Predict the structure.
Amino acid sequence: MDPFRELGRTLLFFGGLLVVVGALLYFGGKLPFRLGRLPGDIVHRGEHTTFYFPILTCLVLSSAFSLLLWLYSQFRR
């Protein structure tokens, strides 16, 4: 395959990915769930410190990115 065509396809994919991520960030406040504030996220507020670890948010984002990369690999075949 022509290297410029391959580069163009890759740039289109990452451009589409940026549009999706940008839309999630822009419309994130209007979604019925808030990434970073899901029920499985750990928040411990101490007297002088706050510890925050978004476990469920990490799992959701990891699953979404894995699905996108799997779809991309299926598209390239």
